[in-house]
Specification:
The protein is an alpha+beta fold. It has helices at residues 5-17, 52-63, 152-155, and strands at 32-37, 40-46, 74-76, 80-83, 112-115, 128-131, 144-150, 162-163, 169-170, 177-180.
């Protein structure tokens, strides 16, 4: 069978021009969050492959704009920056049910997104943290839900607030908005 080089080149060009299903030009990358602060944007890739229930919960809350205006209530230098509590005390959560643990062998490194919880491993709800440095002692005890793919320089600028008598943090940095990629609302 003879193959015409021009026909082959044309076919190759057409295949290259056709977008992969689900990833058309301009389409939003699945499971990607844009977290905007006063200092810029943090891009987070959720790991639905290892923590599907946790990723689904964060995505559902992001679609509801739950995280808009929520403070970073716990920032510990050399460890992590935590947010996701609408009360700002570290004790609050969303109205969605808690999520059962989805522990994995993934490592808690700088830029890893982990799900906060109480002493009960199945108590994660809306709070999450971004590791400022490796925290390997959390592995297989906390759920890894994602990783920062760009904007760690912005994460490093999140300031520690001051703790008030009522348990709230005063003058903390906050999330201006958190959206799924493709949601420009």
């Amino acid at each position: 069978m003879l193959i015409d080089r021009r026909a082959f080149a044309l076919a190759a060009a057409l295949v290259a021009a056709v977008p992969t299903f689900g990833h058309a030009a301009g389409a939003a990358e699945p499971h990607t969050l844009y977290l905007d602060t006063k200092d810029g944007r943090i891009v987070i890739k959720l790991r639905a492959d290892i923590a599907p229930k946790h990723a689904a919960q964060i995505e559902a809350l992001a679609k509801r704009h739950f995280y808009d205006g929520v403070v970073f209530h716990r920032v510990i230098d050399g460890f992590m920056a935590q947010t996701g509590d609408p009360t700002g005390t570290g004790m609050g959560k969303s109205d969605l049910p808690n999520i059962p643990a989805e522990f994995s062998k993934e490592k808690f490194l700088r830029g890893t997104l982990g799900m906060a919880r109480s002493q009960d491993p199945n108590s994660a709800n809306s709070q999450f943290f971004i590791c400022l440095a490796p925290a390997r002692y959390l592995e297989e005890q906390y759920t890894v839900i994602g990783e920062v793919t760009s904007g760690m320089d912005v994460v490093d600028k999140i300031k520690k607030g001051d703790k008030a008598d009522n348990g709230k943090v005063t003058n903390p940095d906050k999330i201006i908005k958190l959206r799924l990629a493709g949601d420009e609302s």
